[in-house]
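Deviations from the work plan: none for this task. Representative record:
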Amino acid sequence: MSIHDEMLLLARQTKEAGRVIANLSTAVKDELLKNMAAALEGNADRIISENEKDLSAARDKGLAPAMIDRLVLDEKRIGGMADGLREVAALPDPVGEVTGMWRRPNGIQVGRMRIPLGVIGIIYESRPNVTADAAGLCLKSGNAVVLRGGSEAIFSNSAIGDILQGELERMGLPKAAVQVVRTTDRKAVLELLKLEEEIDLIIPRGGEGLIRFVSENSRIPVIKHYKGVCHTFVDASAEFAMAERICINAKAQRPGVCNSMETLLVHKDIAETFVPQIVDAMRDEGVEIRGCSITREFAPQVKKATEEDWHAEYLELILAVRVVDGLEEAIDHIQRYGSLHTEVIVTRDYGNAQRFLREVNSSVVMVNASSRFSDGNQFGLGAEIGISTTKLHSFGPMGLEDLTTRKFVVLGEGQIRQ
Amino acid sequence: MSIHDEMLLLARQTKEAGRVIANLSTAVKDELLKNMAAALEGNADRIISENEKDLSAARDKGLAPAMIDRLVLDEKRIGGMADGLREVAALPDPVGEVTGMWRRPNGIQVGRMRIPLGVIGIIYESRPNVTADAAGLCLKSGNAVVLRGGSEAIFSNSAIGDILQGELERMGLPKAAVQVVRTTDRKAVLELLKLEEEIDLIIPRGGEGLIRFVSENSRIPVIKHYKGVCHTFVDASAEFAMAERICINAKAQRPGVCNSMETLLVHKDIAETFVPQIVDAMRDEGVEIRGCSITREFAPQVKKATEEDWHAEYLELILAVRVVDGLEEAIDHIQRYGSLHTEVIVTRDYGNAQRFLREVNSSVVMVNASSRFSDGNQFGLGAEIGISTTKLHSFGPMGLEDLTTRKFVVLGEGQIRQ
């Protein structure tokens, strides 16, 4: 069978299975996820021995230690996957919710009911825990899922897929509802991305290269997240202690993630005092500063920032600092260099807080809080399937609700149109 | 300038203008739309004389009379466009609405605020009234718009565009917020469809050929609507008089539109009585019937339906009729042959009504009402920008709200992440 026919067949089976999953009760879906969690724990030995095959191939290929670390599955990480499934089981089911119903002059009632999207395709790299996490979120929201992990995790992903499918079968449900693509042929991804009749949404999870590749080759809608160039603007009226606390947390608490701060903007009226203070505090945290010329007037030891620094997603202990004329220039800088991820203002001024909230068009806009809160779990959405920095369908951290859509429901009593 | 550079420049100007439109108050937007309405009426002579150029070119090219009729702009149609703008001005402004706000355990408040998408691209055919209608809906929802009509309406569309831009300028607003593409080079569309950094959403309006072309060539998300193969299922418990009234209305009141009925499904338990009754009633309306073999048992004069009839969007006085075993088979038929547009059940059975509402996965699902109600205006959404039969972002008739997205807003008091 050609790779085209193989992927088409697989996706058609998944679509068919999706019709069954869409109509399951919440109780059955929750039982399924809890059974899957127990099965992962019960089969930990098998997962670990399959994972060992991936690890030894990775070592043979000379993969970087950080990459290898991401690949490792041990008892603890398998327990983490199982707990993740139990947490998703405990979340409210978005399917069937009627998000409003109104009566028209002719008496028909019109409402909107939340329904699953159908089939979700997840294209991801290295971390094999995504296999279980994504399957859980898709099933709970009534969707079937096609999972295409990286070739470096093929044994681990296949083992996890087998275990999840075993639980579907044990409950009399179609195992095609969770499909792990088992060919490592790179053409498989290209074929999947053409199947717009079978797959409703593609979510790529991985580096910018993977996301661009998927986005450029997909006929199916893609929800994407290129990078997080997050800004914090310290306004003239900011309380210095709060501003310092928020900036240090946003930069240094976990610099390698997309919601950490990359550029600090400081109002010119407080630059003389605040710049030396924050530069010192950042230095104590081991953060290297790259500043604009005004920043360097007040902190001469700071390295000069170049145009690239304003675009940079460092993901490490480096921070770009720019002094701006005020709110207007801060917003302009964010519009020009930002990536629509998360932006913060620290201020005591009500009007500036409101304007920042209204006018900054990123997916998350905050007043007086660390950008590190920009996360589905922190927002109370439950586990996160991804984060979108494009505006269609979802914008920002995505939870279960973002794996659904709404149809119109109309209740009549024989009305006809005049 | 190359067509690529020309479209890129135009789209960049539109994006820049979009930032201004996004932050306008509702009052200013409403004033703008009312001024535009008055300007269209005040310049009716100019529009009509430009329209005459399109009409004479169309006659020279030998366009079909129906096509020419769609092109015509007279005082009445110009008045209709103006009224359309005034109606949009009277609709509530979706921008800025906070659709929920909740408090997290650490005290941060998290909410979602509705914001414009940015720049909408509309690709449409023949009817020049779309130029004003779409511009009004995009502006009211805080978006800028690039309008690319068909070459057969280029003089009419350009004249309308000039008048709308004149009103933007008169109010000190950037005229690039409403851009009519004035080149008739077909490459212009292909170039526009690549500008994913500048244009946030493409809405094609026209025949299936146009929509497929746009969808296959776009790097920008497309909201599409291929066709409307709408079904009515008359259940065993249906009240015959109501069922007949609904079916006649759904088929014959305006057969040429996408929400008219194309296939009637009849429960086998009532086929012997209901099939002859509805066939007679349809004949009185001039409707040609194509039936399955059971239909033809009870109405022998009926033409035999072929497999193509179940797929057909007739858009004229033809109806396919099939007798089904019951609800299950009706739903299966709809899943297999439907186009995810609008499906109706006529029933007195509560359980069947609920199951139909829940399990049929089309964008509009109705109980005891004519499919002809499937329309943004009829649903109370105000003017309709289009209808989506794909699930991402919007599903079903689209109003102003569907031209927006939601960002997260977070109100803190100095919280940092532990």
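The longest helix of chain A spans residues 3-22.
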